[in-house]
């Protein structure tokens, strides 16, 4: 039943920031009598939908939810009160909410009302689903994911910058799903100039993330895919103070948001995106910006798609630029890593231990 909660929660991937992904199921005598998920900030929470679907049959039933019910007033009333009022007999919680406004309070409220509460069911999967939410709450910054596709010899483009396509359709489909699940995508000016990407999810009803370009010079093409479809795929340009005001005005006229940051760094970019309520940021940038993002702790997770191809070239582009590491013993080692095939390609994903990131 907890896995069903997680499955329901995934219906809102990319749509709930800054709120978590939550699904809920109400069960009576082994039968699901109500279920629901949280569709987005400001809307009712998963438990409310599930209990409404169950109606009066919720009395004496068991409610499952992957995250502790809230016990405070935000944009919506506390879920704990709705659960108490429903007269369910038992609540099964996947994980405690790390938000200090909630943490433990919702569970305590339910227990004080005489409801049996079980905590920690399928907790690892519950934490994985909401890793971006947890990171945002604990560290007060968005969760950063570095994604790149490279050849077997570690190149993301040829020496003249050509990169379409390194991986096959299956891998590109995975990337589109990933984009739909993230709140923002960041690239640098060089990626825009060389690739002219759309940075959309291309998955029917999936939400397009906020598309972000970091450019210190604003030496960017006046015509680009990113300056189009602003209504369905919003675009933000982050630049240094006072740079190329005429180009800024042109972008603003097209509906592109422009923000000057001082200094223009991944750290400041993540601070600004945090202020917008962003939870997860996908870095799809080139090696120079990727190295900067890693160095300042803006990347927590790496997804490396590896194609069984070799292009060679001493001047060909690599996924991560200079990190000023001179010995192999200094290499950043991913933890909790795993690998799987994606069509003809391979995907390796893992996490940076916080203590490893050079500051």
Task: Give an overview of the whole structure.
The protein has 359 residues and is of the alpha/beta class. It has helices spanning 2-9, 46-54, 79-86, 105-112, 123-129, 131-139, 169-181, 189-195, 245-253, 266-275, 287-295; strands spanning 23-28, 31-37, 62-65, 90-93, 116-119, 143-151, 184-188, 210-215, 235-239, 257-260, 280-283, 301-307, 335-342, 345-351. Helix 3 (79-86) runs parallel beside helix 4.
For the structure shown, list the relevant keywords.
359 residues; alpha/beta; single chain
Specify the number of helices.
Answer: 11
The secondary structure category is alpha/beta
Strand order of the largest sheet: 10-9-8-7-11-6-12-14-13
- What gyration radius follows from the Cα positions, in whole Å? 22 Å
Q: Characterize the main sheet.
A: 9 strands, mixed
Low-confidence stretches: none
How would you sum up the global shape?
elongated
**On the 0-100 scale, what is the average pLDDT?**
93
Q: Say how many strands there are.
A: 14
Fraction of residues in helices? Answer: 25-40%
Instruction: Provide the succession of SSEs.
Output: HEEHEHEHEHHEHEHEEHEHEHEEE
Termini separation comes to: 43 Å
How much of the sequence lies in strands comes to 15-25%
Write the layout of secondary structure elements.
Layout: H1 2-9, E1 23-28, E2 31-37, H2 46-54, E3 62-65, H3 79-86, E4 90-93, H4 105-112, E5 116-119, H5 123-129, H6 131-139, E6 143-151, H7 169-181, E7 184-188, H8 189-195, E8 210-215, E9 235-239, H9 245-253, E10 257-260, H10 266-275, E11 280-283, H11 287-295, E12 301-307, E13 335-342, E14 345-351
Parallel strand pairs: 3-4, 4-5, 6-11, 6-12, 7-8, 7-11, 8-9, 9-10
Antiparallel strand pairs: 1-2, 1-3, 12-14, 13-14
